Amino acid sequence: MELLTILGISLLLLLLGDFIATFVYHVPEHVFGRYHSIVHHSPNRSFVSYAVRKHCPQALLPGFLGALPYLIWVPFLWPLSPLGTVIGLLLAELHVIWRHQFAPDYQTPKLIKILCRWFCITTPERHRLHHRNANLAFGDVFTFYGKPAQYWLTFLRQLKRQWV
Fold first, then answer.
1. Which value, in Å, is the radius of gyration of the alpha carbons in the chain?
2. Nearest C-alpha neighbor of 143 from the set 123, 125, 121
3. CB 58 within 8 A of CB 77
4. pLDDT tens, residue by residue, 100-144
């Protein structure tokens, strides 16, 4: 039972964190933000490097805000399973590193690609689509957030046009 609790809390953290990251941070940042598109969708992609090179410490904020949707769940999930919470955070960070494998020759191994498709997990190839076309392939960890995020993106852009 303890193993199921650990795995369940890890999965819950990933699901909740990716939901908030996608719909509260990532999509709105594409519409209303500045630094996400300038920094993260550039070849360098490092908020720290950009902040130092451009003497622009405020560019660090979007980098922090990208992690916050996962961190906000720690006080709620920790009492249920500290180990599950830590594993969820580690998996989230490892997935960030993995999905940003943009080497031109990188290919996700076929078995892992099949498993990712089956579990709706974003692969580096799918995330690369998002970096090539910022209107596609939302959902940092889970692909099933992609289509609703596109609708959200369209709605927020219409809202922005009405304000301007």
1. 17
2. 121
3. no
4. 876 778 899 999 999 999 999 999 999 888 888 888 878 889 999
| Residue-level length of the chain | 164
Are the CB atoms for 88 and 12 separated by under 8 Å? Answer: yes
d(CA 1, CA 55): 51
Instruction: Count Cβ neighbours within 10 Å for each residue of 128-160 and write b for 16 or more, e otherwise.
Output: bebbeeeeebbbbbbbebbeebbebbeebeeee
Dist CA 53 CA 56 (whole Å):
8
What pairs with residue 121 in β-bridges?
142
Q: In the Cβ-directed half-sphere of 11, how many Cα atoms lie within 13 Å?
A: 9
- What are the pLDDT digits (tens) for 54-88? 777 777 777 788 889 999 999 999 999 999 999 99
Instruction: Characterise 38 by phi-psi region: left (phi > 0), alpha (psi -120 to 50), beta (else).
Output: alpha
